[in-house]
Fold this protein.
Amino acid sequence: MLVQLVGMGAPLAILNTESKKGLALVGAPLGYVVLMLAVPLAAILLISFWTQDFQTFDTTPTLNNYREAVTDPLYRELLIRSIRIAGLVTLVTVLLAFPVAYFISFHVAPERKSLWLFLITIPFWTSYLIRVFLWKVILGFNGVINSGLQTVGIIDEPLTFILYNANAVVITLAHAFAPFAILPIFVALEKIDRSLLEASQDLGENRVSTFFRVTLPLAMPGVVAAVLIVFIPTIGDYVTPRLVGGPDGLMIANMIQVQFLRLNNAPMGATLAVIAMLSVSLIALLFVALNRRFLRGSR
Amino acid sequence: MKSLRSYAILYLIFLYAPIALLPIFAFNDATIIAFPLSGFTTQWFTELPQIPALIESVKNSLYIAVITAIISTLLGICAARAAAKYSFRFKRPIMGFIMVPLVLPEIIVAVSLLVILLQLGLSLGAWTVIMGHVLICTPFCIAILNSAFQNLDSAMEEAAIDLGETPWSTFRLVTLPLVSPAIISALLISFTISLDEFIIAFFLTGTEPTLPVYLWSQLRFPARIPVVMALGTILVAGSILLLILAEMMRRRGLRRAGLQDKGGFL
Amino acid sequence: MTALIDLKNVNKYYDDYHALRDVNLEIAQGEFFSLLGPSGCGKTTLLRTIAGFEAPSNGSLHIAGADMNGVPANARPTNMVFQSYAIFPHLSVAENVGFGLRKSQLSKSDKIKSVEEALDMVGLNGFGGRAAHALSGGQRQRVALARALILKPKVLLLDEPLSALDKKLREQMQSELRRLQRQVGITFILVTHDQEEALIMSDRVAVMFDGAIAQLADPQTLYKRPRTRKVGDFIGVMNFLPAHVTDPNKITLDVAGLGTVTIAPEQAPSGTSSGAAEIGIRPEMMSILFEGEPDRGEIAEATIQDRAYYGDMTYYDVHLKNVPEPVTISMKNIIGRPVLEVGETTRVSWDARSLVLFAS
């Protein structure tokens, strides 16, 4: 740190040298995000109040788009379905992930822990597109599951309920977001002071009741984080519903894309995007608020 | 507990199962992805280099990924160092805001960028994709670099200055060597993310598609599926290699600084 | 002779927080000087100001006659041993020690020789090739010392260098540092919160509270004649008794539990006035008169309230007449001396020359 004389006498204002240096340094990434994210998001909000006629925008502010989005059953259905699917994915993913995170935190030697985590995250880093496509291949009419089960003789006719509907979307997304759920729960479990568990047993609890009375409540911040980390991106997913969802499995992102790129109705697309973001934020805030007592006093 | 261990292993198998299919069917001599397997063939692999559109898209992807990695890592270094070293007003909200792209659904990012770019009259192309990718890669770089910069004892930089070095030579001789494994990790991770990213590229690419966008266009043709499997095999193998490299770098960084492994960079 | 380090009216503010208050300090060439005080008293801030990592908000700092205003840390004739030692983990021990020589004009072989000499001086012969991150705490400290001393600074600054070491190692290093300072002959400025350490090692000590120097003196004076109650309480253990000044000219006082006594001027603050005050007396300055021992000094009646046996010493808490708070008396466990029980009455002897008067 270079030393500079900061001036004589009086206490300094909030923008002292250190603060200035810090702000200058963080200015580049901050500026980028403001430019590339805040401004475009504001633009989206703005556009949702406009109407589009082929290539030209009519900039008179109007609530028509919102009115249509809320009243037209098509959009409402889509939004509710998206929330339902995302909710189901989150539930399945987090429930399945918790035992794995618990296993790694409590039953794996410290030197091996990062290896396990590494193995779990590898699939996440491979091409998402390829993975979704693989599920399409797996669940298909002539796909891996059906041909495999038929070859072995377990079924005679191919299963049709596993592809091109909401079920396929749930399975595929649960698979894709599994690592997202494991990591935050693992971090929270690692933070738990092991002597607390010993104290619980010393006071008469068995292993199961210790888990429910001590471990789980202390791990809740991680569970809440996992829920948010899975729910929020899932609800806006485009690729999976498009590839494996069929007509009944489409989600809000697909409709947004259609509005923008096919129907040339950017304002409508923007409106749906704003509504989607608002619903997600609301649900997230609600969830965090409900779990407030677990999050207080953490750290 | 035994059952917990078996569950964890089953879980791992479930995670890897789809990917494991890739090499199986990439070498399968059939155009339908189904059991039972037909013979062994490498024709799908040999076909790959002969598709000009594919080669073009690979070149585009690599170009975009390299530039994205460099820019994101640079921005990440700025942010992580600022966060670790200085305390300034609004620090937490600012850092939180920079990390927001991590939790936003990508379609929102893609769509809003598209709107702005079209309004500004900019033509879509490689650089518009780079802009979008940097937005989502920078938070990852920050996450990786944060722990490296925080583990840096600030007394070390002061000690270097006390011993006569300038701030720049201190950065060069002390800070950089200790942080370079994390920097390489960040470069590799953002490179990988950019290479695989689909939706932003889909919205923001012009006439030069990236590899995922090209892949997408091929998915509707059943005849192309085996070739896609071959391509997928190569992609996945490549990603895994890069990841192992990134992880080795991360561990080496920890060893060099004499620190303990707390289990991954996230 | 002009002082080596001269601070005049130095103040330091962090926003509204007044970290250093009107610090005036002169430190001589070749002194082993300590800054002593509880956490947050400003001693580290002062050290860092001398080093150049903090700039005073006002006031002046001169080192060897040169004004340090605007001079950055890397250009000052000071070097610092940091509390965490700050050893560069990616370099070897030799590379660490020789780090500051990079810009010097020495030839490569001269540099190697310097490093070897420096390692020799701190007792780390042959450690040059070791990886820095594989050293123990005590070894790291020596590397930090060697790394700083190799540059032949005029002043060596040490920021709580021994606080991370265990007791035995600490005592060993205390004598090591004194020996080193005498051998090298330069000024050492040590920051510590451990008053024993400061007293053992230093030529002079500045005791600091709340950003200001409360007393600056050699260890003996500090111990025997603390200027304020706070200093007396911080250095070692001190008993406090309420007193009433009856004659401010002759300095006669009525001390609770002990009686009337006259003390010398150097035992009292200047400008003593009549009225309520306090005296301090060290535990070893009072004695329990056992059966058969001849009377000496002044005598007071007392009752044993508590007792703690430490092997070489026994500490008694005794109640003096009309004094609710017990005073502590330390007695050496000589052969033949009985150990008194709680509740026993006894007589205590004390010397008027050992009292220190504090304004109330």
Q: What stands out?
A: The interface with chain C takes residues 153, 155-156, 158-166, 174, 177-178, 256-258 of chain B (CB under 8 Å). The two ends of chain B are 27 Å apart (CA to CA). Chain B is about 75% helix and 0% strand.
